[in-house]
């Protein structure tokens, strides 16, 4: 890499092809200049001597040129070796990414691609472990209840209690799987301005509220959507819907019975702000620092609703891909929570 690095410092050799051409140019013309100088200043020139000198200069320059050109291949070889090491051993390299020519861009792309693949692989392992754990627990609970049914199944009252428990476990597990599928689907959404469109925040939130009618009624919650009908967000339809789905779902999940949830929106010169406020369990500063981390075990909902450990992490990622921000606020445990979504206009 030393030869490549030194040539990269030369102002007129910014492109990788220029470096190759420059070395080849010198390799051709240095022996030619040597021959001309010898012919000009030598007092006597024999044909044999001239041929030998010409041959020697040409071979020497060719060997030196090939050596330098081979050294210029070092960054390409380094990139190839990095890919091989990752494929064989999952080794993440530390390639130089400060160069600006074609090979420098290639090294940057290799480094970024390997880091992204490593991140995806780690996330896949995390998800497998999470699902394995959260599927195993209710199965064990179900097996335990079945054992109780075998022992006390003749008692109608106990049998009904066990059936109710089995129904609750199955319902929670279905909800967990539905949440995981939504999250995994949102994770693979391509979010870029080319896919953005104008969206009605009020309509999206109303549709989400309707979809949670059963859980809202079960907790006897009041949800007030004060987002102006004319307020529009420019964003990815599925991504923005998933953001509000996760936040409204969390507000319902962590609200106490007979509680209220207030949703409002406003437009400033630079951005759209949507606030979702609940009066549920809230959080302290210590919990706040872990809210957006992956797979950090969270509280169960106030009715025992399961959490995936992924929802807020991915919600924040989606908002950030829109160039926005997601800010959490709470005065402490038991005081409710407020989440503010800010999206550029």
Which runs of at least 5 residues are low in confidence (pLDDT < 50)? none
C-alpha-based Rg, rounded: 33 Å
- Compute the number of helices: 11
SSE arrangement, N to C: HHHHHHEHHEEHEEHHEE
| Main beta-sheet annotation | 5 strands, mixed
Task: Report the CATH C-level class of the largest domain.
Answer: Alpha Beta
Strand order of the largest sheet: 2-4-5-7-6
Number of domains: 3
Query: Beta-sheet strand percentage?
Result: 5-15%
Oligomer: single chain
Number of strands: 7
Topology (elements, then pairings):
Blueprint: H1 2-8, H2 16-41, H3 47-72, H4 74-89, H5 102-152, H6 156-187, E1 197-200, H7 201-211, H8 213-219, E2 222-226, E3 232-235, H9 237-253, E4 260-267, E5 271-278, H10 285-288, H11 311-321, E6 325-329, E7 337-344
Parallel strand pairs: 2-4
Antiparallel strand pairs: 1-3, 4-5, 5-7, 6-7
Helix pairs in contact: 2-3, 4-5, 5-6, 7-9, 9-11
Which key phrases capture this entry?
345 residues; alpha+beta; Helix Hairpins; Heat Shock Protein 90; 5-stranded mixed sheet; two-stranded antiparallel ribbon; 7 strands; 60% helix; 12% strand
Could you walk me through the main structural features you see in this protein, from its secondary elements to its overall organization?
- By secondary structure, the chain is of the alpha+beta class.
- It folds into 3 domains: 1-91, no CATH class; 117-188, Helix Hairpins (Orthogonal Bundle), CATH 1.10.287.130; 193-344, Histidine kinase-like ATPase, C-terminal domain (Heat Shock Protein 90).
- The protein is 60% helix and 12% strand.
- The chain has helices at residues 2-8, 16-41, 47-72, 74-89, 102-152, 156-187, 201-211, 213-219, 237-253, 285-288, 311-321; strands at residues 197-200, 222-226, 232-235, 260-267, 271-278, 325-329, 337-344.
- A 5-stranded mixed sheet has the order 2-4-5-7-6.
- A hairpin with a 3-residue loop joins strand 4 and strand 5 (271-278).
- The longest helix has 51 residues, at 102-152.
